[in-house]
Amino acid sequence: MGGLTGIIGAVYAMFTYELKRMLAFSTLSQVGYILIGVGIGTPLAIAGTLAYALAHGLFKGLLFLASGEVVRATGSAFISQQIVQKGRIPRQTRIALVVGTLAIVGLPPLAGFTAKGLLGASTDSIWLQLLLVLMTLGTVITFSKITGLIDPRRGPGGERSKTFSFAVLCVPIIASLPLLTCGVSRGQGFSSLDPLKALESVGIIAMGYIIHLALKKHPIRLPQRMFQLEEAIIIILSMFFLTFFLLSNVWV
Asked: How many domains does the chain have?
């Protein structure tokens, strides 16, 4: 169920080009990590699940706040049109987008990397490890679409209240390593977040970005009707019921 949720959500998010809708489908995919952790069920997996639930609340909250400001500043809900108007996006919002994006794709040592590292270390199954990698690749491909919004040039200033809100979410995301590993033993926590894991995470991010560039040159066109909210809910629920049916037959 976790793998199904993660993969379907990632596919929807990858081929959605409306910013807030993309974040909503991404949330579906991210819930897959939590379900997988519950499914594994070991103490380290449960710790990773709780860590990921907390981390996701932080960086997805940050991304939704920033996306609302992007829509307000550019006057458009679609990423391609927002990129054209990116000069209007306040610099605080751009920084928030950078932090939130890097965290959700799992860049070390931000919150996403810490939580995914705990989940990955909680199982020896090569299939579950591969599933987590595929879900992360989908996340990287999805959020590579908004790299065009990141403009290093000085932009207009934003409201102080928005800046404070961004900072409240950014600080724990950046300082996640000591915060999220406090629920597990020191050996387990830091062995799952060693330099090799960090290098692996960076490699997955680089691979996902390369796939994104390839898809830009040779785009895959999916029926847009399936991305309407009503159609999406029907398809996803149908897949859930099919999975339950198959699992019930296996158990019998």
From this structure: 1
